[in-house]
Design brief:
Elements lengths: L21 H81 L5 H13 L6 E6 L14 E5 L2 E5 L14 H4 L9 E2 L3 E3 L4 E11 L5 E10 H9 L11 E2 L5 E3 L17 H12 L9
Antiparallel strand pairs: 1-2, 1-7, 2-3, 4-6, 5-6, 6-7, 8-9
């Protein structure tokens, strides 16, 4: 048997299979690069924006927390100070009422018995006195000014409080500021007392004779050292600083004791602090900053 082998017929088709070449790979890569070129900056920008948002949100939360703690701390300090002032004021008023009711019958020795226990009734009262108008206590005696103050933890009585040669209590602010007042008590500005050798503030309560004529003043004093301790101890965070000013801007309490009753915040060499001080004196409450 004869077997005939036949060559397959040539395909008339002109189709060719083009193998994958380098140009295809480059095309895919270029698309990837193009996507990264546009996507990466967008992702980075979004991350930066989110970082800033997170930073400022955290900063605001922390600042609000600090402000809240500061307000609580400040409220506590103010409450302590007001309570101390109120107690001192009540002692001054009680002393004035006792003198007014018995001015015509009380001898000098009676003041020695009355004043120490009354002034000692408030542990925060440093001292106090009774100050008669000239010749009002005795027509033969120009001045009568019994006074008590703490010495070694005990209220010590003095027959006559001396302000020094040629200086009279009738010229002192804590005396003159109540001569024409309708208030039961008036507070003095903080001052340094040369006799007691301390910085103090005084509550003055006027007293009158039976006809309503002004005949003198009863006073009680607070040693500012205790108030200064309350203020200086205010510290919510490391590096915090608190100070207390009088209405004119003079320092009453500050970490720098050299400033007390001498320096004024509006005259600080740091102009940013001086400007803040002026704002503080104008506004009753608020927030501010300085560098």
């Amino acid at each position: 048997m004869k077997i005939q082998a036949k060559q397959p017929e040539k395909s008339t088709s002109n189709l060719k299979c083009k193998p994958k070449g380098k140009s295809g790979k480059l095309g895919i890569k270029s698309v990837k690069y193009e996507i990264l070129f546009w996507l990466l900056p967008a992702v980075l920008a979004a991350m930066i924006v989110l970082s800033f948002m997170g930073y400022y949100t955290s900063k605001r939360i922390i600042q609000n927390s600090i402000n809240h703690e500061m307000e609580l701390s400040l409220s506590t300090a103010v409450e302590k100070i007001e309570k101390s002032l109120s107690k001192n004021r009540m002692v001054a008023e009680a002393l004035a009422q006792a003198v007014q009711a018995n001015a015509n019958v009380m001898a000098a020795d009676n003041y020695r018995k009355l004043m120490p226990p009354l002034l000692s009734s408030n542990p925060e009262t440093f001292g106090g006195g009774v100050w008669f108008e000239p010749y009002s206590y005795d027509p033969q005696q120009q001045y009568f000014s019994p006074y008590c103050m703490l010495e070694n933890g005990k209220m010590t009585y003095f027959d006559d409080y001396s302000l020094g040669e040629g200086v009279y209590y009738t010229d002192m602010e804590w005396y003159t500021n109540v001569k024409d007042t309708t208030q039961s008590t008036v507070w003095s500005a903080p001052y340094y007392d040369e006799y007691a050798k301390i910085s103090m503030v005084t509550a003055s309560s006027p007293f009158y004779d039976a006809s309503g004529k002004f005949i003198g003043v009863a006073t009680t004093d607070i040693d500012l050292t205790e108030l200064q301790k309350i203020i200086v101890s205010l510290q919510v965070n490391e590096g915090d600083k608190a100070f207390l000013l009088d209405p004119s801007g003079t320092y009453i309490a500050d970490n720098d004791s050299a400033k007390l009753l001498k320096a004024n915040i509006t005259q600080e060499s740091n102009t940013a602090l001086a400007e803040l001080g002026e704002t503080i004196l104008v506004q009753k409450q608020g927030t501010g900053s300085f560098e």
